[in-house]
């Protein structure tokens, strides 16, 4: 038969393992969701000169583009030294 001290130690260990499981499980689920999102939205790790529409991994997601709104950082860098490129991006059909 277990003594009172042994029962307390077993309860403490079981409670600690359960608490650790509750702390680790959400992190595992979130990391899987992020991996799925990264696979679903591929990006290019760099800038393609003259093509402001390519999504760059280093810049934040640009969201919904509204015609006539200010260009994002990717468009400004990609359109450098290309006359009319930034104007086409801002006022274009996309």
Write up this protein:
There is one protein chain. With 94 residues, the protein is mainly alpha-helical. It has two domains: 1-40; 44-94, no CATH class. It is built from three helices and no strands. It has helices spanning 4-40, 73-78, 85-91. The model has no long low-confidence stretch (mean pLDDT 78).
Count of all domains: 2
Work out the strand percent. under 5%
Main beta-sheet strand count, sense and barrel state: none
Count every beta strand, where a strand is a DSSP E run of 2 or more residues: 0
Oligomer: single chain
Question: What is the secondary structure topology, with strand pairs?
Answer:
Elements: H1 4-40, H2 73-78, H3 85-91
Question: What are the defining features of this structure?
Answer:
single chain, about 90 residues, mainly alpha, 2 domains, 3 helices, rod-shaped
Brief rundown of the structure:
With 94 residues, the protein is an all-alpha fold. The protein is built from 3 helices and no strands.
